[in-house]
Structure formats: structure tokens, C-alpha cells
Amino acid sequence: MIAAVLLLALPQAAAADPHVVDVDYEVALPAPPEPLAVVTLRVRGAREQLVLNAVERYAFTALPEPLLEGPLRAEDAAGGALAVRRDGPHQWTLPDLPASAREDGVTLRWRVPLTHRELEAVRANHDQYEFPYVAEDHALLSAGPLLFAPTNAALGDVRVRFELPDGWGVVAPWPEVEPGVFAPPGRRGLGDDLIAVGAWRTHLVVAEDDTGRTEIAVALAPGQEALEEHVVGVVDPIVRAELELFGTRPFERYLFVFARHEIQGFGGSAKASSMTLSARPDTPPERLTGSLAHLVAHEFHHTWPGGRGVPTPGSLRFVGEGFTDYYAYLVPARLGLLPWEELAAAFRRKLDGVRANAGWAATSLSAAGGDAFFQRGDTYRLVYDGGLLCALWLDLELRAADHDELPDLDALMRAFVNDAPADELPSLERLAALAGRALGPDGRAALERFATGTRGDLSAELARVDAFLDQDPAAVGARLALR
Ligand SMILES: [Zn+2]
Q: For residue 273, how far is its CA from the centre of ligand 1 (angstroms)?
């Protein structure tokens, strides 16, 4: 369960003479459906060169190169072929655009086989649920493998249209600016968002208060009907509770996708303004609500920092994943979807797990979030479980200190995420400074030890968490309740 990291450059700051291109995509699925998308991109405003990139990582599994059938081709408005140079697995350059192409636009075309779910690398990671597919009556599309974008210019208007078999509708997480034409939020939406087309069942949840209005669509693919009632019963309260926790609206529209289930157990991954979730339809109902609540609360929580469009560095992945997982237990417990007893038991298992985790004897939480994270194993679990315990410890310290502005972790995270300077990467320094403001220098030093030390440096903090979890569940619930 990780937030996909976009490796496209962030939009450049506006210069005196900004180079801006408008882009129009058409994604066509042939009828009768076959696992293929034909993408046409019209670019207006290009100068001497046009550089186009595919997103390198839009899912846990990064492919060595995008899946393509045949080469990417380009032509000018009169249909004249233009030279295309492939600079690397994910980049193409049109090196010498003639005046006609600069004035009247360039059209590029490529064909994407939608067979990602069959790739060995994807299956080995049980990662099918993040990738597109085409079935007889519906398809899951994904911006990452389909919508390559110019990278040597800022993006102006971005429009996406779908050419689909007769009767197929579109559920996209983007504003529909005219019938059938969608406007993704620039590069973020083009990076990894998901689009459901065809015979999906859709529910709409509208959350509205003085901070704004958010429309959440929940789309279930054919075959997922057994999940429907449980999904809606979980998504609705959790989305509302987390939007209140955030104290801000990361987006106006959002899409939850429950696509064809092809993995073992449960999986989820948050994208720019959409999320893919996977749950076994034959899960016993008594297990379904708890598991779904955790999954939805975890993944929707990712949209909070995700809404800023600035990635979390690997050194803070224990916050990005571990603090997020803390709230994935806490928010359902506060809503009565998870008994406090089960929250305490789960936190106890995390504590036992990190105490036995061989990785933490040698590696810090910050270091575990680097490349080693993607090897799974000890360091992967350490990032989640060590990060969760760090969040629990910090929340307990803050509640004990009862600082005016930062009385609990909810308030500290609002300050950390909502008040962050624009475009600045989240940093341990800022987080530690906030902890120091509420807890003083000792608290700040303890948080820094959590991030950069090993298990042996944290005996006192872990003992504190241990003692807390020894209380009866009602006391745990009273301590962690919403203020
Ligand atoms: Zn996650």
C-alpha cells in the first residue's frame, strides 16, 4: 500500500516568456473490445522541439519501459510525418519541428496493449489491481501507462476524451468540461489517475461544509456486487471523518475503483484523485467491514499530503506510510467501525513485530524508507509498523503535554501538511520543529531518534507505548478519542 511517486518534473516556475502547450488526448478502445488502447495526442504551442515522457512509476511495480505496440508516430497538421527520436525507455523527442507544426499543431499516436496484468513483474508483486484491463463489458483505464506528456514546456489546457464501444459510459475523477471531455488537474492527473469505463455500478457521496464541497464516486466493476453494500457503508463515514481531520479539501472530485479482483486478499493504492482497491468478493461479511475500513481509511488518508502534489521523500516514508496506517486504525475506531479492543490488539502486534524485526537492529526508520523498502521484507514492514508506533508515541506525548495549538497528533499533522510552504518537500526538520514546539527539546530529540536511530535508542519510548497498550480497551479509546 504505497502512494505512487511521480517522476515527472514538477511544473516549472513561470518565467517572463513561459513556454506553454495545450494538449488534447483521445483514448480509443476498439469495438468489439480487445486489450488495446489507441492514444492520439494533439499538441498546440510547441516550439523547435517537443520532448514527451511516459511516467516511470505510477504503481508499486515500475516497468522497465512502457508497454507499446509499434512505434510512437508524429505528424503535422497536413498529415506529413515528423521525425521522432527515442531518447530512452520513457522519453521521445521530436527534434526539428517545421513552422507548420509549430503553427498548426502536432499530432502524435501510439498504441498500448492493455495486458499489464499478465506481466510476470506485476504478478510477482500481486500488483494487478493497480493496472488497466479490458473485459467484455467494461475496462479499467489508467493515465500512467496511457497518457504520455510533453515535459519541455508547461501544460496549459489539458483535455481527455474517450472513444468507446457503443453504450459505454465514463467515470473519471476529473471535471467534465463539456460532454465527454474531461480536464485532469495538469501533470498530477496525467500521472496516475484511474478511469472506469463501461458497465460499472456507481455511487455518489457528497461531503459539503464551510471548507467546501467534495464529490466522491465509488465505482464497482461487474462481479463486485457482493461488496457494494459494505463498501458504501464504509466509504461514506470514513471520507467525511478524514476530510474533517484534514481541515482542508485536497480535491473537488474523487473516484474509488473496485475493479476485477485478481490478487490474494486485499490491496489498495491512492493516486492523484482516484484510488484502486481490491477485496475478495467472497470474504465473510464480518471480516469485510473491518478490512475495508482499514483499507479505505489508509488509502484516503494518503490523499491529504498527496493533494499538495509534492512527493514525500523516502526518508519520511515512515510518516507517509506509518502515520497513515495509525489513522487507518484510529479513524475507524473513532467511528465505531473497529472495536477499541481490536485497535489495541493490532497495535500490540505491531509493537511485538518491531521488537522482533531484525531490520531495526541495524537500520533507522528513515533509511528503511529508501530503496530497501521496495525489496519488501523486514525493512518494508519496519516502515509501516515502526512509523505507526512513532505516531502512537507522538500522539500520547502530545496529549499528555496538552499544548494550546498542538494538543494532539491531529493538530500537529494539520500544521505539518496544511501550513507547509508551497512546493517544499516535507522534511524531518519541520516535523521535529513542530514536535519541539509542543514537547520541548527532549520531545524533539526523541522524535529525531525515532527517525534516525535504531531500536536500541528507543527503549524508553517503546516501553511507554507498551504500558499504554496494557490498559483496558476503554481507557485506550478514551485516551485516543477525537477532541
Ligand atoms: Zn500506504
A: 15
| CA 295 / ligand 1 centre spacing (Å) | 9
DSSP 8-state assignment for residue 419: T
Residues in Cβ contact with 157 at an 8 Å cutoff, skipping those fewer than 6 apart: 22, 23, 24, 183
- Reported as half-sphere exposure (CB side, CA atoms, 13 A), residue 166 has a value of 1
Same domain (yes/no): 326, 186: no
In terms of domains, do 260 and 407 share one?
no
Neighbouring C-beta atoms of residue 209, cutoff 10 Å: 11
Task: Return the bridge partners of 107, or none.
Answer: 42, 75
Question: Is 353 found in the same domain as 284?
Answer: no
Judge if 411 and 369 occupy the same domain.
yes
In this structure, which residues have their CB less than 5 angstroms from ion ligand 1? 1, 321
Alpha helical stretches, state H, 199-278 = 228-246
Q: How far is CA 65 from the centre of its chain?
A: 21
Q: Is 2 among the domain residues?
A: no
**Ligand 1 centroid distance, CA of 291 (Å):** 14
Q: Into how many domains does the chain fold?
A: 2
What SS3 state is found at 245?
A: helix
CA distance 194 to 173: 7
The alpha carbon of 293 and the centre of ligand 1 are apart by a number of angstroms equal to: 14
Peptide bond into 426 cis (omega under 30): no
C-alpha cell at 346: 493490532
Q: State whether 347 and 274 are in the same domain.
A: no
Query: Is the same domain home to 242 and 320?
Result: no
Q: Which three three-digit cell numbers place residue 323?
A: 502515520
Tell whether the torsion through CA atoms of 303, 41, 178 and 130 is positive or negative: negative
Query: Are β-strands 212-220 and 253-258 bridged in parallel, bridged antiparallel, or unpaired?
Result: parallel
Mean pLDDT, consecutive 10-residue segments, the chain of 483 residues? 41 60 97 94 95 95 97 94 97 94 94 98 94 97 98 96 96 94 89 96 88 88 89 92 91 91 85 89 80 90 83 93 97 95 96 93 93 85 96 98 97 96 91 98 97 95 96 95 88
Question: Among 306, 340, 355, where does a domain finish?
Answer: 306
